[in-house]
What we know:
Layout (H helix, E strand, L loop, with lengths): L1 H14 L18 H19 L8 H18 L1 E2 L4 E2 L14 H4 L8 H14 E2 L2 E2 L12
Antiparallel strand pairs: 1-2, 3-4
Helix pairs in contact: 1-2, 1-3, 2-3
Amino acid sequence: MGRxxxxxxxxxxxxxxxxDAGIWEVRSPPQHFTQSKMMCWVALExxxxxxxxxxxxxxxVPRWRVEARAIAQFVEHQCWSADxxxxxxxxxxxxxxxSLLLGVLFAYPEAHDERMRATVAAIRQERARGPYVMRYTxxxxxxxx
Length: 145
């Protein structure tokens, strides 16, 4: 099992730079979805921790470390919307996406990060309706409903 986890981490370290259209995304061309990139970072960070603790082979630890840093740089520089003061659904977008709340659950990038706090506040303000949270609208902020 440990070898398979290590292989998966190496696969993630090669794959994360590609756009995707996961099963939970709208039927559209592949994009560099912020949530996907965050989860790739989480996968590599967890693999690094498991290797450090001796639970999985660490042959590719240097590569995982480099790629985890590259993912974080991509997210911080490409996926942050200065206009929204929040992480956007994908680079160049100003749309909020409640799936980014998974970043809080998985500690991307750390538990009390100001950018993540601002994103949570923006999602709460614009996507929450009572106990429910809409993931996204599919519209840009400047479009009319």
